[in-house]
């Protein structure tokens, strides 16, 4: 089922629940998912806990009698933590449905459309009863995808396979280069052997995707860097043809209380890049110039 945005799709999934129900969510999720849970739906009698879903023990420990949903984001945005689906990526890279996941949600706004020119969301399920409820919400709530956006995304998806191959290849080159820069404290990319879930990512993902985060150590260092990039566009969203760079603490995750952000690993120095389809040498040259 298609929706007007990824958030509209996520909102519709949470409508499957009732007041009194409890939801477990991956801790370093997209800021909007934290916001809709904590700042909207907790007013309607749902409760949300954010936990490290890369650790099965943590999930078991956090389960309650009234836990009705486990909401997993993998890789997480922006710290790239990978949850074992057996236990972020488009269906070209990973297919949670094949792992027995009940409901899969995508933001079409990102790599699926891939041209930063539409907003949309997608929910996929094999469960007929869930599908019927979601179709009812689509109509009753009206969070639907517009015809022009639908057409743009249909066109964008035609090049998904070749774009994801290129995004993945370039991102691995950029991430490897970033690990060699002394000014960079840490690089988060599932394709790096140093990544804590590297072997899981190799098993679970066709390639490692186009998203990288790296820590410059402080807010000042991040600001200096972001004010110097030119080829990479300083902008929200991700998954476009153009490389997009952002500062999660003041952008995508700004609505999360700073103590919570710290716990999630969204530090003041963290920068996130969506590696575009430009030549990887040009992207690296731009980052090098910005690092000064
Ligand atoms: C992981 C994740 N989930 C959901 C969303 C929300 O998608 P949309 O912007 O299409 O509402 C985003 C947006 O950045 C995201 O990164």
Structural class: alpha/beta
Please report the number of helical segments: 11
Mean of residue pLDDT values: 95
Ligands bound, unique? pyridoxal-5'-phosphate
Low-confidence stretches: none
Q: Give the helix proportion (percent range).
A: 25-40%
Strand content: 15-25%
SSE order? EHEHEHEEHEHHHEHEHEEHEH
- Kindly report the spatial arrangement of strands forming the biggest sheet: 7-8-11-10-9
Number of strands: 11
> Which overall shape is indicated by the principal axes computed on the Cα atoms?
globular
Largest sheet: 5 strands, mixed
The first-to-last residue Cα distance is 46 Å
Gyration radius over CA? 19 Å
How would you explain this protein's 3D organization?
- 38% of the residues lie in helices and 15% in strands.
- The protein has helices spanning 6-14, 31-40, 56-62, 108-112, 128-141, 147-157, 160-179, 198-204, 219-226, 258-264, 280-291; strands at 2-3, 22-26, 47-51, 67-71, 103-107, 121-125, 186-188, 211-215, 233-234, 244-246, 270-274.
- It is globular, with a radius of gyration of 19 Å.
- The N and C termini lie far apart (46 Å).
- Bound molecules: pyridoxal-5'-phosphate.
- Pyridoxal-5'-phosphate (PLP) binds next to helix 1 and helix 2.
């Amino acid at each position: 089922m298609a929706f007007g945005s990824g958030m509209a799709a996520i909102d519709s999934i949470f409508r499957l629940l009732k007041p009194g129900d409890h939801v477990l969510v991956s801790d370093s999720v997209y800021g909007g998912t934290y916001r809709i849970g904590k700042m909207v739906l907790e007013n309607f009698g749902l409760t949300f806990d954010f936990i490290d879903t890369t650790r099965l023990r943590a999930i078991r420990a956090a389960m309650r009698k009234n836990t009705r949903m486990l909401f997993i984001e993998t890789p997480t945005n922006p710290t790239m933590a990978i949850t074992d689906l057996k236990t972020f990526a488009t269906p070209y890279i990973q297919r949670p449905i094949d792992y027995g996941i009940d409901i899969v949600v995508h933001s079409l706004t990102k790599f699926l459309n891939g041209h930063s020119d539409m907003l949309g969301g997608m929910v996929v399920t094999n469960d007929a009863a869930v599908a019927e409820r979601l179709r009812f919400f689509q109509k009753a709530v009206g969070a639907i995808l517009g015809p022009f956006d639908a057409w743009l995304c249909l066109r964008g998806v035609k090049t998904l396979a070749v774009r994801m191959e290129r995004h993945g290849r370039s991102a691995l080159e950029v991430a490897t280069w970033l690990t060699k820069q002394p000014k960079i404290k840490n690089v988060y990319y599932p394709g790096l052997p140093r990544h804590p879930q590297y072997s899981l990512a190799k098993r679970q993902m066709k390639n490692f995707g186009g998203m990288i985060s790296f820590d410059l150590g402080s807010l000042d260092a991040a600001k200096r860097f972001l004010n110097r990039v030119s080829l990479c566009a300083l902008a929200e969203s991700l998954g476009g043809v153009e490389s997009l760079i952002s500062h999660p603490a003041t952008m995508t995750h700004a609505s999360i209380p700073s103590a919570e952000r710290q716990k999630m690993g969204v530090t003041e120095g963290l920068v996130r890049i969506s590696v575009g389809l430009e030549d990887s040498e040009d992207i690296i040259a731009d980052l090098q110039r910005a690092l000064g």
